Structure formats: structure tokens, C-alpha cells
């Protein structure tokens, strides 16, 4: 079956929105990415749906419950083996805390969206999501 990923493993990033703001997370590892900001998430496990993986990763990493809303159009290669998909998600419960993989979190209003140093591959999806927040 052609899932459009050319055999690469999908990393799902969550564009978590609440009260008109977007959640950004600062990575602690690996060294090449530490200190840069991302849409929190992680690798989809074999047999797992991408939206399920998103719910699992955000529960593990941030202690929150989210509802995936829709995939952001596009995909962004990370490495030879990994490709980034982004889903918009709504915060259902909990206040995000940097439990794993991150050392700082920020809720960004649309006019602050590019105040943080996003990983390069995340920028197009962040721009698309910010447009939806502006209404
Ligand atoms: N989660 C996430 N990872 C990203 C983004 N942009 C980006 O380049 N990456 C890279 C960083 C990592 O090399 C890889 C995702 O790995 P991860 O460490 O977050 O995933 P994981 O929780 O499943 O990790 P693991 O312990 O199973 O290795 O993708 C992004 O927006 N979100």
C-alpha cells in the first residue's frame, strides 16, 4: 500500500492549540537539536495510527490529553529515514509540563509565533497553523 512516505518512518508533531495560542516546546536532545523549538511529538510505532501516536506522545512527554483535529497539508523530511507530519490538536485536559525531551514550553499568540527558534522543518507547518489561529 502506498502511504506516501516512501518507506520512511513518520514522526508526528502536534500543533496543540488552546485559547488562540500555539504550544511550542524546547528540545533537550540530541545535541544538534537541543535548544531549538519544535511541535512536540515523536515517532509513530509500527501498527499505530499517526493520530494515536500523537495522543500517546503528548501524554508521555507533556502530561496532557489532546484531540487530534486535522493533518496539516505537507510532509517534511527530517533524515533519510524520518519524515515529519504535523497534526493540529486541541487541548482537552491538563496543563503541559516538560516531563520528557523538553526543558521549556511556551504558549505563543499569533503575533509571537516566530519569536522562538523553531527547527527548520517545523516552520512551514507553524506558519500554516498560525493562519488558522488568526481566523
Ligand atoms: N517530535 C518532533 N521531532 C522532530 C520535529 N522536528 C524535527 O526535526 N524532529 C526530529 C527530532 C528527532 O530526531 C525526531 C523525533 O524523535 P523524538 O525523540 O521526538 O521521538 P520519540 O519520542 O519517538 O523518540 P525515541 O525515544 O523513540 O527515539 O525528529 C518536531 O517538530 N517534532
TrEMBL record:
It is an enzyme of class 3 (hydrolase). Pfam families: NUDIX (PF00293). The keyword ATP-binding does not apply. Its cofactor is Mg(2+). The keyword Magnesium applies. Keywords: DNA damage, DNA repair, DNA replication, Hydrolase, Magnesium, Metal-binding, Mutator protein. InterPro entries: MutT-like (IPR047127), Nudix_hydrolase (IPR020476), NUDIX_hydrolase-like_dom_sf (IPR015797), NUDIX_hydrolase_CS (IPR020084), NUDIX_hydrolase_dom (IPR000086). Residues 7-133 form the Nudix hydrolase domain. Its EC number is 3.6.1.55. It catalyses: 8-oxo-dGTP + H2O = 8-oxo-dGMP + diphosphate + H(+). It comes from the Bacteria. Gene3D superfamilies: Nucleoside Triphosphate Pyrophosphohydrolase. Belongs to the Nudix hydrolase family. This is 8-oxo-dGTP diphosphatase. It comes from Streptomyces daqingensis.
Amino acid at each position: 500500500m502506498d502511504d506516501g512516505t516512501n518507506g520512511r518512518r513518520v514522526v508526528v508533531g502536534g500543533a496543540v492549540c488552546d485559547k488562540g495560542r500555539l504550544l511550542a516546546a524546547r528540545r533537550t536532545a540530541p545535541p544538534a537539536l537541543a535548544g531549538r523549538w519544535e511541535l512536540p511529538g515523536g515517532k509513530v510505532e509500527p501498527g499505530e495510527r499517526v493520530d494515536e501516536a500523537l495522543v500517546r506522545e503528548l501524554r508521555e512527554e507533556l502530561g496532557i490529553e489532546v484531540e487530534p483535529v486535522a493533518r496539516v497539508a505537507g510532509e517534511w523530511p527530517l533524515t533519510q529515514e524520518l519524515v515529519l507530519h504535523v497534526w493540529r490538536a486541541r487541548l482537552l485536559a491538563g496543563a503541559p509540563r516538560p516531563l520528557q525531551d523538553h526543558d521549556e514550553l511556551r504558549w505563543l499568540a499569533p503575533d509571537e509565533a516566530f519569536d522562538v527558534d523553531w527547527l527548520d522543518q517545523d516552520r512551514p507547518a507553524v506558519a500554516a497553523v498560525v493562519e488558522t489561529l488568526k481566523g
